[in-house]
Amino acid sequence: MCLALLVILLHCSSLKAREVFTINKVEIRADPSLQVPNGDALTILCIADISKSGNFMIEHHFTFFKDGRILSDITSLQNRTEYKIPAARFADTGEYVCMVKAKEKKKKSEVMLVKVTGLPKPKLTALKNMVTEGEELVLKCEVPEEAPPLTFTFQKLLTPGGPVTRTKKELEKNFTTIEIPVEPGDKILRFQCIASVYSAHGMQESAPSDVELVTVVEPFSTPALVIEPSLNVTEGDNVKLVCRVVVRNYDIEIIIQKDKVILNSTRGQNTLTYFTKVSMQDNGNYTCKVELGSVSKEKTVNMVVTELFSKPELIHSAKMIDEGDWLQLQCKVKGLLPVTKISIKTRYLGKDNLLNDSSSFITKAHVNNTATYICTAEINGIIKESDPVKINVYAPVSIPQLWIVPSVRDVILGRAIRFQCQSMYGTPPITYKFFRGNKTVNSSQIFNKLPAEFRDKPTEVGVEQYSCEASNHHSHIRKRSRELNITVIAPVGKVNLISVPKREVEDGKGISFRCYVETGSLPINFKLLKQNNRKPISEDTKMDTEVIWYKETWSKQDSGEYFCEASNPTNIVQRSDVISINVILASWQKVLIALFVLVIIVILGCGGCCWYLWKKRKAKHPSIEMSGSAGVTNSAGVKLEPRQNSDGQYYPGYMDDSENHMKATDENKGPEHEITEVEYTEVEVSTPDPHRAPVQKGTEPVYSEIRKANNEN
Predict the structure, then answer these.
(1) Tens digit of pLDDT for each residue in 459-482?
(2) Which of 271, 450, 534, 573 is least surrounded, with the fewest CB atoms within 10 Å of its CB?
């Protein structure tokens, strides 16, 4: 029992020494709630639930986070702490987290979303309380309590069509400024602004700011435009236009204009006058405009002009007249007053040339009368002119000429021909028609004195007839050229070359060549050529599509490749395929060579036979000569060498027993085919050497057996 108590006491003392603890939970709270109005106080509470092994103190380290960023670090011995926000703003909206760390242990709370609703009312300020028309007004809108980014909306109130708004976004400031132009006609300006903010947690918009009032001062009044004597006048009346304006010591500019045409202007004055004698062209709207910088005010009135007499009308017999016909012109005017002056004129390049001071004009038309005509009428200083009339007098065309460019006698089939047709006389524009035979190929209208050009491509060989026709606006004349005859020739077609005989010809004999073309106009020039030799072997010009050449006595040097060229007046050369000609030996040459070879063979054969017979005869009658230096052949056909005795003497015909044996020749076919013949041959014995032992002199018979084989050749 005592031992158990001792163990418990030791264990307890061990636990006290270790001071064991654990963080069970970290809780985060918002006071008074998770959603608070803008400007109210907000407190964030952090509470740590910790279990300990004993009654000991622990230092707690609290860290507050908003949207992942550290807000505050607090160290305390208490298990709870708080983070206070005296006046919550929209920028305080976000996700809050609290983390507690004790010694080496730490734990985070859950995420808490806090929302701050609403924005404080912005403050709007105008840098000037009184501005002039055309001036730029600077407005400033700010929300000092809020943090950027902010969006500001400015509103101009009490304008036709509703408020005029402008929006501006600030990313780094809680205020912004804009410039608003003061428009002409503005009197009292009213402005207000609204602030708004956007974030991941939503959007909030403030209440409108207080209205800011700005007074507008006019630099000058709206102008007044007066037309004297009245707004309704008659052609020829003298009219005065007067423009007046009230100005406050500004350097203004006054302009009087009709439509877009400026009639008069002045600067630094408050009155502008314009005088004119009106015509029908002066009927319309007149404007007086006063400008100062970007400020512009205007007044427009309409002046009605009554016509004194009508616009004259030029009556003509025709706009296109044949040369030699009558040209008649008459000017007519409708009006209440008698016409004081009427004139008929021509106009060229803006200059008028008087023809007649009356209402009519008549003359016999000439080409020089081609012109633009007008007539004018004048009453009380008012001059009016008719619409211009263009009258053309046409001289008849001459007979056109037709030719080929460049000039050639013959043309090639399938190639385009260029023609030119021209009538040397006649008033442009001249219309040319181009004919092949009686068929119209093409037409062209020329507005100057240059020739007309046409192209045609012949499709048949032979003679083609071409012509052209010229005409203009003359009512009667139409002329045609003489016919132009063109010879159409075709270039040579495919060229063929054949030989008889083909490929080979005997030496000394002749060969025929036939060169022909499949198509082509005559005459045709034919050439026979050898490859790598530009000099023709034969050349002929034929009124035919083929030619035949015969060449006699060919030799080996004439072997080679041959081809034919053909051309006609088109100067287009065509070439045939190459053919090979090989010159071979003549028949008699072949026979002669054969006989020569045969004679050589016979001679060689006879020589061989003679040699064979001589060899055989020599083999049947051999002769054997013995000399001192020659050996002796025994009956077996073995050569006996001289033998020296003990005294140094030699004895011919002696053979050692060890060497005395038979040697069979390779030619022997066997003992059954051999016939042994014994002959006696007298052998002359040479005189012995004087230093040797003496031997018997004279001729001694020596018997030698000579065997001959019956099958020896």
Answers:
(1) 888 888 899 999 998 887 889 999
(2) 534
Question: Is 668 contained in some domain?
Answer: yes
Residues facing residue 401 across a β-bridge: 422
Strand partners, 75: 61
CA distance 14 to 7: 11
CA distances from 696 to 411, 628, 655, 699 (A): 127, 14, 19, 9
How far CA 264 is from CA of 243, 254, 256, 457, in Å, comes to 11, 8, 5, 70
Domain boundary among 344, 375, 393: 393
- pLDDT tens by residue, 374-421: 998 888 778 888 999 999 999 999 999 999 988 777 788 878 889 999
pLDDT of residue 692: 43
By residue range, what is the domain housing residue 353?
313-393
The whole-angstrom separation of Cα 73 and Cα 50 is 19
Say how far apart CA 184 and CA 46 lie, in whole Å. Answer: 63
Q: What is the rounded distance in angstroms from the CA atom of residue 195 to the CA atom of residue 45?
A: 31
How far apart are the C-alpha atoms of 563 and 575, rounded to whole Å? 7
- Nearest partner of 316 among 253, 272, 360, judged by Cα: 360
Tokens of 356: 């007649």
Tokens 């800011």 -> residue: 212
Which pLDDT does position 710 carry in this prediction? Answer: 40
Low-confidence ranges of the chain (pLDDT < 70): 1-17, 161, 335-340, 508, 585-590, 620-713
CATH number at residue 417: 2.60.40.10
Do residue 383 and residue 432 come from a single domain?
Answer: no
The overall average pLDDT reported for the chain is 80
